[in-house]
Design goal:
Elements (H helix, E strand, L loop, with lengths): L1 H34 L15 H6 L1 H4 L17 H15 L7 H21 L10 H23 L10 H10 L9 H11 L9 H12 L20 H9 L7 H11 L27 H7 L5 H6 L3 E4 L10 E3 L2 E4 L2 E3 L1 H15 L2 H5 L6 H12 L3 H9 L3 E3 L3 H13 L11 H13 L2
Parallel strand pairs: 1-3, 4-5
Antiparallel strand pairs: 2-3
Helix pairs in contact: 4-6, 5-6, 5-8, 6-8, 6-9, 16-18, 17-18
């Protein structure tokens, strides 16, 4: 009997301990659930690409010379530029209004420390191993480097080690990589400390001027525009996007031009063929799901279109590089360049559109860059297709034809969008219908 009582007591103790541990685990899990942000509250604006995308072409997404922000901070091979950042920090501090650089540096570091928690929340990874002081120092060093780098550009100087042009070009494209960013509000604060306005309020227009001028010409045929007043800018790549990519359906000047063309007074390029105002027509769907829907929503490759009687012409006065139209069997496209710089910039603009997060959800341009790349990717499937666009004066290829084909194939492969409903969907549909009529 004694053994039975001891046995039942031990079983009760074990059950009680099990309940205790289960309750503790539930509480721990609940704390983690409560800590997760809802989608509407998602603070992430600077995130990493999936490893499968970055791993296939790290040359498109990883910095070659200089790191900005925590993702590549301290990475081997970037040490020379890290030392150069300290030189540019010194030069930027000398521009400030404080009587001595020490006072200016202290003000910057105090401001960065105050912003550190908010800045850290902008990243999809927590970087718990990086202390608050180290994180604030990184924000000051990288933020002042960016400001001085672009200020020098506006002054006609190349802020690269030794003034080397090749190094400057790599640095410029490095600071526009999706994973190589710091929050724009850090730049705003550092700029306001160095150049306080008379009323004490930050001079945002002066700050935007620094970058606005530098971005001109990055996308062929595009005129750089200022983001609308009050537009929240999350980081430098986002600002570049807002300056170069816009949804024509929300642009007042383009709405007026489209109405003029609808009345028969448009230009000879067919610049406003109802691409922007027609409702997309759904493509046939099947039980195969998105893959078959995507295939039926694309357009034939350039050589096949040419065989079907389609003519390719370079648009002489495009609104921007996305001003593409199809009319009476003629596909009008602005000229664009495919070189190493363009490959990197386009890939990261697409990745930005695709990445989600708070910044991507607020884009005015929708998936315009993704739609453009999807169009070119569907047109260009062989070296012969590249030659068709080259011969028409549309694609100026500074890489081999085969390399251009592989590039667009890679970028399109990892994009996700509704191929029935995007800003170029009606253009895709009109081309497909023309080919069906020509059979």
């Amino acid at each position: 009997m004694e053994d039975e009582r001891n046995g039942s007591g031990a079983a009760a103790d074990a059950a009680q301990k099990s309940r205790f541990f289960r309750d503790a685990r539930v509480e721990a899990m609940q704390r983690r659930v409560d800590a997760v942000h809802s989608e509407a509250e998602d603070p992430y604006t600077i995130f990493r690409l999936p490893a499968t995308v970055r791993g296939r072409h790290p040359d498109l997404y990883e910095p070659k010379v200089v790191s900005v922000g925590p993702y590549y901070h301290g990475r081997a091979g970037l040490g020379a530029a890290q030392q150069h950042k300290w030189r540019l920090l010194r030069d930027f501090l000398s521009r400030g209004s404080s009587e001595n650089a020490d006072g200016q540096l202290g003000a910057c570091l105090r401001a960065a420390s105050a912003l550190e928690a908010d800045a850290r929340r902008c990243y999809a990874e927590g970087f718990d191993e990086v202390g608050a002081d180290d994180f604030a120092e990184m924000l000051v060093l990288d933020g002042c480097f960016l400001l001085e780098f672009f200020l020098r550009k506006g002054e006609g100087q190349l802020a690269a080690p030794g003034g080397a042009k090749w190094a400057w070009q790599h640095m410029y494209h490095d600071v526009l990589l999706l994973e190589n960013q710091i929050p724009f509000f850090v730049l705003e604060k550092l700029h306001a400390l160095a150049f306080p306005s008379e009323g004490g309020a930050p001079d945002r227009e002066a700050l935007l001027d620094i970058f606005y001028k530098a971005f001109a010409g990055d996308l062929p045929s595009s005129r750089v525009i200022r983001p609308r007043s009050g537009k929240t800018i999350h980081h430098l790549l986002h600002l570049h996007y807002e300056c170069n990519v816009r949804n024509p359906s929300t642009d007042a000047g383009d709405i007026k031009a489209r109405k003029a063309n609808a009345n028969g007074s448009g230009d000879a390029n067919g610049a406003s063929l109802a691409v922007w105002k027609q409702s997309p027509v759904p493509s046939p769907r099947s039980s195969d799901g998105a893959v078959k829907g995507r295939l039926t929503s694309m357009v034939p490759q350039a050589a096949k279109l040419e065989d079907a009687g389609v003519t390719f012409k370079r648009k002489t006065t495009p609104r921007d590089m996305f001003d593409i139209s199809f009319r009476y069997g003629v596909l009008h496209m602005p000229a664009f360049v495919v070189d190493e710089a363009a490959k990197v910039l386009l890939a990261n603009l697409v990745a930005f559109e695709q990445g989600g997060g708070r910044a991507a959800r607020q884009l005015d341009g929708g998936n315009l860059v993704t739609g453009f790349v999807a169009l070119v990717g569907s047109l260009v499937n062989t070296a012969r297709d590249v030659e068709v666009l080259r011969r028409s004066g549309i694609m100026h290829c500074m890489v081999t034809h085969d390399e251009a084909v592989r590039y667009f194939s890679h970028v399109v492969q990892y994009t996700t969008m509704d191929y029935d409903r995007h800003l170029l969907a009606c253009l895709f549909r009109d081309i497909r219908e023309h080919c069906q009529w020509s059979r």
